[in-house]
Amino acid sequence: MPMQDHVAWNAMIAGYVHVCRSREALRVFDEMMSAGAFVGEATVVSVLTACAQMGPFGPWKVGALWRWPWRCSRAWAKGICTLGQVCGPTMNGMALECLELFNRMEIPGIHPNGFTLVAVLRGCSMAGLVDEGQECFDPMKDKHGVDPWLEHYGCVVDLYGQAG
């Protein structure tokens, strides 16, 4: 690429993801990291989608993606929602990855929004993680300032239903 800015890198990664060439997308992501380019929300969404497309070989890249100190709640929310909703929470064991990201979001000043909590609860429900789901649901109002929506309650009902 003649101009190696984050926009060009993101376009290449997203293009590979769009045509289901996940390995190439992740290879370009590695090159992007080596070049020291800015990694933003667009990068996060594309890389998480590539990981989901790869089946059981993709989740290892997710951990590398989240080693940086993200200070933007939107980036965290997009990552969690991508894992929890777009990719399907049970696909490739992504429910646990979703929970891991949610737990790492515990940075001062970064709080989940209602959509993020729906994604986490949905992931817990699909994976049968009753205790983890309850731990996410119980402090919603007091800890995160989010009044439960009908969707949150639906996830909790489904969580208990899945667990019998």
UniProtKB/TrEMBL annotation:
Keyword field contains Metal-binding: no
Lineage top rank: taxon: Eukaryota
BP GO annotations: RNA modification
Single GO term (MF): RNA binding
Gene3D superfamilies cross-referenced by the UniProt entry: Tetratricopeptide repeat domain
PPR repeats: 5-39
UniProt-listed InterPro entries: PPR_At4g14850-like_plant (IPR046960), PPR_rpt (IPR002885), TPR-like_helical_dom_sf (IPR011990)
One Pfam family linked to the record: PPR_3
Keywords: Repeat, Transit peptide
NCBIfam families named among the record's database cross-references: PPR
Protein name: Pentatricopeptide repeat-containing protein
Organism whose genome encodes this protein: Panicum miliaceum (Proso millet)
